[in-house]
Amino acid sequence: xxxxxxxxxxxxxxxxxxxxxxxxxxxxxxxxxxxxxxxxxxxxxxxxxxxxxxxxxxxxxxxxxxxxxxxxxxxxxxxxxxxxxxxxxxxxxxxxxxxxxxxxxxxxxxxxxxxxxxxxxxxxxxxxxxxxxxxxxxxxxxxxxxxxxxxxxxxxxxxxxxxxxxxxxxxxxxxxxxxxxxxxxxxxxxxxxxxxxxxxxxxxxxxxxxxxxxxxxxxxxxxxxxxxxxxxxxxxxxxxxxxxxxxxxxxxxxxxxxxxxxxxxxxxxxxxxxxxxxxxxxxxxxxxxxxxxxxxxxxxxxxxxxxxxxxxxxxxxxxxxxxxxxxxxxxxxxxxxxxx
Length: 340
What we know:
By secondary structure, this protein is α+β, with helices and mostly antiparallel strands. The chain has two domains: about 1-45 and about 230-335, no CATH class; about 50-135 and about 175-225, no CATH class. The chain has six helices and 18 strands. The chain has helices at about 120-125, 135-150, 160-170, 225-235, 280-285, 315-330, and strands at about 1-5, 10, 15-20, 25-35, 50-60, 65-70, 75-80, 85-90, 110-115, 130, 175-185, 190-205, 215-220, 255-260, 265-270, 270-275, 295-300, 335. The strands form four sheets. Strands 1-16-15-14-17-18 form a six-stranded mixed sheet, covered by helices on one side. A five-stranded antiparallel sheet has the order 10-11-12-5-13, with no helix packed on it. Helix 6 links the parallel strand 17 and strand 18. The radius of gyration is 22 Å and the shape is elongated.
C-alpha cells in the first residue's frame, strides 16, 4: 500500500497521524495504527533519566478527582453525560496536555466516555498515553504555535503554520502520562457507573514531583524526548553481522528509502509511504520497533527512472544530500546503494 504526500503523516504514542491543510483550516485526525514490535535489550544506563510517580483511584459517575503531582494538578472532571475529561492544569487552569497531543481538532484522547464516534464502552476499553508540558515557560513558549496552527489566518505566515507547529513540537522534551483502565462498570445502555484507574506520570529528573507520590528513577521513554533522540532511546546500535551479506532490496529487512524528484518513497515491512522530505524525520522516527531488526541502520538509493534530458539529476542529488543529513541526525547509519 502506498500512502501519498497529500497527508503529512506522523506518529504519536504509536498512532499514525494524518494531517492535511484544507483551505485555511488545520484538519488533523487518526488514520491508522502501527503495531509495535519487541524492543531489543540495550544498555539502559546510557539513556536519559526520568522520574516516575503513580496514583490509583476509583470514581463513580458524576464525581471528580484531583491529585497534585508538583506544580501541576491532575484532574478528572465529569462530562455532561457519564464520563470524564482528563487534564493536567496549572493554577491558572491551563491544560498542559492538550497542546502537545495532536490531533488538535476532534481528538478523543482526553475523554473517558461516549463521544467522537465512540461509545462509552469503546472509550474505556483501552488506556491513554499522553505527553504533557513540564512548566510555565514551556507552555508560554509553545502555545503561540498551537494558536497559529488552529487559526492560521491570524499567523504571520499562514501557509507555514502546520510545519512550524510540528517543527517546534519535535524539539520539546515533555512528560508522559500513562492512564490504565483497571476496571469499568458500564450498563447495557452504555452508561458509565464507575471506573477504577491507575495513572503513571513520567518526567525528566529535573521535574519535582509531590513527595507523597513516592517518585523513583526510570529511563526516559521515547515519547518524552525530542524527535532526534527518540530512535536512540528505542532502537539499539546497528549490528552489521546481521546484514553484511544482504545484496538486494528484497532481502533487506530494515527500512529502505528511494530518493525521488518529489521527495522520498519509504519501504518497511511490506508497507510504503511516499512523501516530501519535510516529513521524513517524523515518519522514520514513528516506525515500530519491529521495523529495525538490524538496529539503527537504513538503506537507500536514488530512483533510477529519470527524464532522458537528465533534468531530474540535480534535484534527486540535492534530495539525497538532504535526506542523508536528516537520517544521520536521527542517529541512523545510512547505507547508500547504487540506483536501480
